[in-house]
């Protein structure tokens, strides 16, 4: 595949862009693959890419029931950070941040990673204690995180209202400067192009409807809307639909699926320099390169597979945004949408072998898995290739819900975006 470069852009500009090739090929499925990945979101595509690049396994298909990147990967608010409390989480999320830093060069595709800083606001004594605990824990793990006074927070993000008469006054903030955003579509497209380039088959409009097992219990392949496709190993990377797929193999998952919503405003000139999150009022905001304010809300309180979500949830979020940033009270909102997120009891992911031979699962990223995309794909590929976990994902087993060895980011963070 042709590499992207300034010279290629100049050449194509001269000939009306007629020489650009398709970014990835769309082959007919083969009768059998060494590895089938179910789900062409960022995590599934990244897994396929690293299987090919780092483990030399190229007889791989990624099966997608809809279009590539059309799940949560294309629906999220793209916040990237690694300032999680526990050592295990810090390990996997910071592995991802390190890969984000060189990802555009690695994929030869501009994923627009922008380390503009993620600031998490404290509104009361409890928030201050929790966020300072994060700052100290992160520093012990070699991860940047610093404490700001309200005045320092306003200097970093001028639209922020730090009036102490607000209903939820800002009393401090934790800032991770290496945190930021990336362009979600570009991440999916970049991984797809690079994986396809190494021989991976990406098959869209191919829904998996069954997982076939041999009499000994090992997987043998998948039933799909395009017929049966054999596989020696299967990786389920289907986010909100993980439990549906794992049921097909007879594995019951400790997951609940909820709608999570986001919305964008009309585009305006650059006005918002960073990412701001408030767990207490439950809102988070950044500005996209197109100029839209990108605003994230909370999950619905009930489980559902509807990709919409309740109106009162985004109303509540906008109340909070208007109070924290009065400058935006007259902005018009353009679109809102939802995605189905898969939530574990401890709000930490599962990247593991399963009790079924040849079946692996990568799920439970809930409301916060976009940031982990490169790291998750990287260690999940290792797990599939070697049939054992990488040291980074070794703690994220399915078994922890039986042994009780939880990684309780739920209690630690309250929200995991
Ligand atoms: C509104 C919203 C905001 C969010 N904000 C953030 C954020 O700011 N930062 C952050 O880090 N994370 C965020 N997240 C979470 C993040 O989007 C997800 O954790 C991450 O994108 C999951 O990626 P994935 O590749 O595992 O899943 P997906 O991108 O959902 O990919 C799974 C794919 O599997 C496919 N699939 C399902 N069933 C089948 C089947 N039977 N056969 C074939 N294919 C199937 C789906 O169509 C889908 O394309 C947000 C999520 C939402 C919904």
UniProtKB/TrEMBL annotation:
Catalysed transformations (reactions): sarcosine + O2 + H2O = formaldehyde + glycine + H2O2; sarcosine + (6S)-5,6,7,8-tetrahydrofolate + O2 = (6R)-5,10-methylene-5,6,7,8-tetrahydrofolate + glycine + H2O2
PROSITE patterns: RHODANESE_3
Pfam families: DAO
GO molecular function list: nucleotide binding; sarcosine oxidase activity
EC number of this enzyme: 1.5.3.24
UniProt keywords, alphabetically: Cytoplasm, FAD, Flavoprotein, FMN, Nucleotide-binding, Oxidoreductase
Cofactors that this protein relies on: FMN; FAD
Source organism, top-level taxon: Bacteria
Family: Belongs to the SoxB family.
Cellular component terms (Gene Ontology): cytoplasm
Protein name: Sarcosine oxidase subunit beta
EC supergroup of this enzyme: oxidoreductase
SUPFAM superfamilies xrefs: FAD-linked reductases, C-terminal domain, FAD/NAD(P)-binding domain
Family annotation (PANTHER family): FAD-DEPENDENT OXIDOREDUCTASE DOMAIN-CONTAINING PROTEIN 1 (PTHR13847:SF287), SARCOSINE DEHYDROGENASE-RELATED (PTHR13847)
